[in-house]
């Protein structure tokens, strides 16, 4: 567990708010810290891009916050109930289906899925994967995309509980390809230079998607944090955090367009 | 709790049942192979010779003393690639469950055989039976009857523990429950349905075993 330092009007924020969440101390965020470099555990500390991002947002909004690694399922259920955790941040892609169950913040991160194969693979695009063995993380947008392309019950499509397991399956020769978020794939290739892995972008079949913070339906937190998200993207704080984790300046064109749409 | 959606359960039912069939298949195969291996290990454990007894004891201690989840991951990402050159989820599933259940059935065999009083062996030997005849006609029939409940228990545990195979994406019942959760991001429908199916499997198995046990008496 990790709490941000609180600067500015922390206490006054709680007095003017009617939500029990704010009145009873810091905003509690849940995460599934198994998605390096977005969120991961470093010994007993949650770290990653999302973690630094939400710290900057909370600081901007004048809110105290803490983040707990609870795992994906627990995060989803407890954020939906909204009592133990008032929000979740865990590279959750904004989709229409998920909007039925949660309120989303403004989009704060542009991502796309990408294919990872071993060097020399004949795969050139997602369509080449139809009759191949493909490993994805269960429930992710990579899962949704590949279920669409290959057929949901294609025996060649294996859905693992984490990207790490899917990547190991490729590594041990049980799968021909892994499809996952670009940040995760890049991090893995970077950390395993001896494994001769290559990534294949496919903008034709894989659209950009955007991550959002999830709130319980009707949460008042959205109104407090959205302006702060906008602010740190406009004032360059976001770009600084991005550079720390990805080593390059972000291209914010698409993200800003998506934010403008809400 | 929001509205319970029976429609998504119905939508996933064919896949859940397909997964159930695989759960049953893996469990049956593993209990059979595990019993054969367990019989060998069990006799090894009871052997008078230390070079049979010690490896058997090590085997039992390792597989009973480490979590099945760890064993599954070691077999899938380590043992099977070492044997066949790449991961193979079905080999890994049956192999890990077999190796694990053999350790337990070995102890069931040993306990069953050792539960028959020493006097029985002494009596039949003094009647002029050989050791082999004593084992075949006197000890084993009594031992097997005592093993049935423990053996049935092991089968039930195996069915439940096969849910751990979802971690290597073996497409059994728990896998499809997780897939269902992944698609709808809902907890109750997939997991309650899976729980009920497991319960039906284990409950009918225990009823069957009760009936068999009564018949044997």
Outline:
The complex is a heterodimer of chains A (262) and B (217). Chain A is of the alpha/beta class and 262 residues long.
Number of strands of chain A: 14
What is the CATH C level class of chain B, in words?
Answer: Mainly Alpha
Secondary structural class of chain A: alpha/beta
Helix content of chain B: over 70%
What is the typical, i.e. mean, pLDDT of chain B? 93
> Per CATH, what is the topology of the largest domain in chain A?
D-Maltodextrin-Binding Protein, domain 2
Order of helices and strands of chain A: EHHEEEEHEHEHEEEHEHEHEEHHH
Spans of chain B of 5+ residues with little confidence (pLDDT < 50)?
A: none
- What's the story with the biggest beta sheet of chain B? none
The CATH superfamily label of chain B reads MetI-like
Largest contact between chains: A-B, 25 and 23 residues
General shape of chain A? globular
Task: Give the SSE order of chain B as H and E letters.
Answer: HHHHHHHH
CATH homologous superfamily identity of the largest domain in chain A: Periplasmic binding protein-like II
The major sheet of chain A is characterized as: 11 strands, mixed
- Category from helices, strands and their pairing of chain B: mainly alpha
CATH class descriptor of the largest domain in chain A: Alpha Beta
Q: Into how many domains do the coordinates of chain A divide?
A: 2
Low-confidence stretches of chain A: 1-22
CATH architecture of chain B: Orthogonal Bundle
- Helix share bin of chain A: 25-40%
